[in-house]
Amino acid sequence: MLQKIDILNLKLENGKHKSSIPLYYQYFGQPIGNAPVVVVNHALTGNSNVTGENGWWNDLIGENKTIDTNHFTILAFNIPGNGYDGKLKNLISDYHDYTLRDMAKIFWKGLDFLQISNVFAVIGGSLGGAIAWEMTILEPNKIQNLIPIATDWKATDWVIANVLIQDQILNNSDDPIADARLHAMLLYRTPKSINLRFQREKTNEVFQIENWLINHGIKLKNRFQLSSYKLMNHLLKTIDITYKRKDFLALVNEIRSNIHIVSVDTDYFFIADENRKTYQLLKRTKENVFYHEIVSIHGHDAFLIEFKQLAQILEPIFNKQKLQNYVNA
Hints:
Elements: E1 3-11, E2 17-29, E3 37-41, E4 61-62, E5 67-68, E6 73-77, H1 100-113, E7 119-125, H2 127-138, E8 143-149, H3 157-172, H4 176-188, H5 191-198, E9 202-203, E10 206-207, H6 208-223, H7 226-237, H8 248-252, E11 258-264, H9 272-282, E12 289-294, H10 307-318
Parallel strand pairs: 3-6, 3-7, 4-5, 7-8, 8-11, 11-12
Antiparallel strand pairs: 1-2, 2-6, 9-10
Helix pairs in contact: 1-2, 3-4, 3-7, 4-6
Protein name: Alpha/beta fold hydrolase
Keywords: Hydrolase, Transferase
Organism: Flavobacterium aureirubrum
């Protein structure tokens, strides 16, 4: 069930003030306060419905699954402005005013409202994983396990460049959501994945790859607001835990969390090489940092496809035996 918290008197990173921002969330599994809390952050076009009917991570979250709702409280916030509340008045038009850090602060305010001061894990893929990085830097002593998947702690030039292309399409196309999605889907997959799947086949003289892309554009247009897409795309450009702070290593050495970096070997958006560099840097000074890599032909979207591999990576972290000594403060 979708619930709401009103976040009051928020100061954004750019200095502007917001008197009230609605934060919508869902929780699954055990009641809040009765079990270790797992915060699941959604990706660009995702939402808080992570498990159950139409849950986008049903393969990993649920009864007797890798993240077991019999033993955890699963909490998922909607990024404000993503439109999942179904009320057009809660959309954000001044999207350039917001940063990923603002969203991470809002999530922490939501946790404070719910009287959750200690989190077993914060996990997320893509944009959601970047929010997980930021949440951990904001509160370095409150998260036991940081699990960023198919993401990075900063936006590379490659990411920034593609955000610009998406923003140009969204602001100049006659069919902005559909057209932007055509471009985005090719960032989320790989040539090998596309070629193997479609093999130049046609239906009624139209290439199946063309139909596939057009259908993805139509589906997103039918369930996503333009202002939401603009905001989510913009937030990708603002990923940077070091912005106006110390250098990366000094920052991360302050956090107590176990860090489980999960990459996709063929990710064309948040490339694996960047995460390998991060791991190599961190392991010089931290013992509780781990690197995992999903092997897939599917590229960035593998974190939504290769569930068996991801489950194998996550199982030791969420193993119920490890929870015996955990106390939810």
